[in-house]
Amino acid sequence: QRGPKIVSYEVMIPEGFTARQVAARFAKQAHMDEDELLALVTRGAEEFSASYPYLKGAHNGSLEGFLFPATYVVKEGTTERAVIEMMLDKFDKEISGIDLGFAKSKNLTVRDVVIIASILEREAQVADEFPKVSSVLYNRMKIRMRLQICATVLYKLPPGTTVLKLSDLKNDDPYNTYSHDGLPVGPISNPGARAIEAAAHPASTKYLYYVLTGKDGSQTFTTDYAGFLEAKKVNRKVFGQ
Q1: For residue 114, which of 179, 169, 84, 69 has the smallest C-alpha distance?
Q2: What's the CA gap between 183 and 69, in Å, rounded?
Q3: Reduced to 3 states, what is the DSSP secondary structure of residue 202?
Q4: Cα separation of 33 and 56, whole Å?
Q5: Could you tell me whether strands 219-222 and 209-212 are parallel, antiparallel, or unpaired per DSSP bridges?
């Protein structure tokens, strides 16, 4: 009846958190070493690649994209490495239930799907629009049009940056989809199941553009640049920019 007292911490990781945000939250809420967590999630991919082969060759050794968002119960004394393995195991479980056949038919890997899903988490505020945003990315890649995704540029700028300068769009960082063709070199957040599903199964559309036009986070999708410019006018009217 008396038994040992087991102390545990419940840590909720939201969809779209970055690896750094994940490390900070576990450090704060589960009283773990933030420096060690940061080292593992930003540079430790090779250490885990034997058990999780999709991490092999990760850009700069980052685990970004594969730290699955969920609520985790962490017992006191759990090592930082064990927490990372817990999250990677959760990713494995979730990805096993998603059909990647369509994405593979387009010559996309698991990592590519996760990169797309990570962009959806940062670009779309309404989860129901994930498949449409995903279709825009697929459609642009099909015609070899640069993705030009602001979220990929913001990922490498100081935390809290919300406004991009023209010089930011021109920098040569490999995450910058304005200055580089195709997908960025790695994920820009840690996506949840709905985003991964949409990344693997985009909607069937001809959309090439989307613009935030609703205060609820909804977007207007267009097939041509003229429609994009009209949607931008709506954006400025709604948000006063």
Answers
A1: 69
A2: 22
A3: coil
A4: 25
A5: antiparallel
